[in-house]
Amino acid sequence: MAGAATSAIKSVLTRHLHASPGSKKIVGVFYKANEYAALNPNFVGCVEGALGIRDWLESQGHQYIVTDDKEGPNSAIAHRAYDLEGKTVGTVGAGRIGKLLLQRLKPFNCNLLYHDRLKMDPELENQIGAKFEEDLDAMLPKCDIIVINTPLTEKTRGLFDKDRIAKCKKGVLIVNNARGAIMDTQAVADACSSGHVAGYSGDVWFPQPAPKDHPWRYMPNHAMTPHISGTTIDAQLRYAAGTKDMLERYFKGEEFPPQNYIVKEGKLASQYQ
């Protein structure tokens, strides 16, 4: 203990001896990250990280005092918070919903990728600034965020199994806007538990409604919600109007818009094949 105290005193004296007449006392007020401080080297906005400027300030002869404020016990959640700007977002499926997603992400200055059976119209692709990825497995390691917008078919059922999830970048965020059965349930839970997937979210489960013992209810780093996206008042008005439009076309013997077909003449519509 005596040796430690002596070292501490020497350290303080050394700092003061090197202080120049123009030295300043800098006070930084942050929250305590506690054990989370060691989980991310870039988590500098906490007491332990002190913005990463202590050595620089003290080498200039300044005093740097860091303290914590009165934030609550959960402020350490920031060790997993990032900006969307500058991140690579890839959509698996670029149909109607996938295209809308890419269009709405454009103002956030993301690097946009998309995988689909078909390449979108070059003019639209240019306008959005998205890049076509023909090979899904080649796209996955490039993505910080993966959004699933593909229909559930026999080709996409179980598409994200253990092996495919392993091809994703460590720390990836996955948002499933499509169907729960596209994912291997246990593979997702295991990847979230290991930290390979930093976060999984969606309102789609398999089966649905999910049983009480569904692994996604208890895995870490998830943001699962009930499947209620289609029940907002705005959505109800949209599908009411859409139903009326389709009935009017049917009564007149008119064709439906191609995107409204699921089955046509006994076959799945092209977008589901």
From TrEMBL:
InterPro entries hit by this protein: D-isomer_DH_CS, D-isomer_DH_CS1, D-isomer_DH_NAD-bd, NAD(P)-bd_dom_sf
Example GO molecular function: formate dehydrogenase (NAD+) activity
Lineage: superkingdom: Eukaryota
GO BP annotations listed: monocarboxylic acid metabolic process
Reactions catalysed, as given in the entry: formate + NAD(+) = CO2 + NADH
Stretches assigned to the D-isomer specific 2-hydroxyacid dehydrogenase NAD-binding domain: 76-229
GO CC terms: chloroplast; mitochondrion
Extent of the signal sequence: none
Keywords associated with the record: NAD, Oxidoreductase
Keyword Signal carried by entry: no
Entry protein name: Formate dehydrogenase
Name of the gene encoding the protein in the UniProt record: FDH1_1
